[in-house]
């Protein structure tokens, strides 16, 4: 099968239109009153997924990043594809008890309680920055699919700092509009405000 991959980058507006038309919205899931944004339809659309990763690669290629950090679990999908495209390392942030070695932990608030995220303490030591980086610190892009309250993202930013990294920016596929704007501990880039 021939490679039909194009290196031409889509404009932001064209990409947003493509993402909106590919995104599936499911009312009252997982409970009444919630509009669930299903990204599996974006992942299943090869052209849309490729254009998304190509756009993000062009957007971040000259930023001096050494690592992508993806938040469990959908941040793994976008983050690992982007790390591969940029030729840099990928580090996962996982829920408590899912990483096998010594970890830093951070609790964060949910609507109904708290949860805990973890990162390996040596996350940036075992995957040293590339030889093209200007200094020895891990310069990180935090990636996740959804920004709602900002609790998960801010907990992840704190974990990256604990592990010796610096979050240059946080990138989200979707930000949910609400009566309040989350205050993130890093600059952010959002593709779709819904």
Question: What are the salient characteristics of this protein?
Answer:
194 residues, alpha/beta, 7-stranded mixed sheet, 5 helices, 9 strands, disordered N terminus
In which range does the helix fraction lie? 25-40%
Mean pLDDT: 90
Main-sheet strand order equals 5-6-4-3-7-8-9
Number of strands: 9
Note the main sheet.
7 strands, mixed
Radius of gyration: 17 Å
Between the first and last Cα atoms, what is the distance in angstroms? 37 Å
How many helical elements?
5
Uncertain runs with pLDDT below 50, 5 residues or more?
A: 1-5
Beta percentage is: 25-35%
How does the helix and strand content classify structurally?
alpha/beta
What kind of oligomer do you see? single chain
What best-fitting shape do the alpha-carbon axes yield? globular
Topology readout:
Blueprint: H1 12-22, E1 24-27, E2 35-38, H2 40-43, H3 46-60, E3 67-71, H4 74-86, E4 89-95, E5 103-110, E6 113-120, E7 138-147, H5 151-162, E8 165-175, E9 188-193
Helix pairs in contact: 1-3, 3-4
């Amino acid at each position: 099968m021939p490679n039909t991959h194009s290196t031409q980058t889509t404009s932001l507006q064209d990409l947003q239109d493509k993402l909106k038309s590919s995104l599936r919205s499911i009312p009252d899931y997982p409970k009444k009153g919630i509009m669930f944004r299903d990204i599996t339809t974006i992942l299943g659309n090869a052209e849309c997924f490729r254009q998304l990763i190509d756009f993000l690669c062009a957007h971040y290629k000259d930023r001096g990043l050494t690592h992508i950090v993806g938040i469990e679990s959908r941040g793994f999908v976008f983050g690992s594809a982007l790390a591969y495209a940029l030729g840099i390392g990928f580090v996962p942030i996982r829920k408590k008890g899912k990483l096998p070695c010594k970890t830093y932990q951070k609790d964060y608030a949910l609507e109904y309680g708290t949860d805990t995220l973890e990162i390996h303490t040596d996350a940036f030591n075992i995957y040293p920055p590339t030889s093209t980086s200007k200094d020895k610190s891990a310069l990180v892009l935090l990636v996740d699919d959804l920004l709602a309250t900002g609790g998960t993202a801010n907990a992840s930013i704190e974990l990256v700092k604990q592990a010796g990294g610096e979050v240059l920016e946080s990138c989200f596929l979707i930000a949910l509009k609400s009566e309040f704007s989350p205050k993130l501990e890093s600059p952010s880039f959002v593709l779709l405000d819904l």
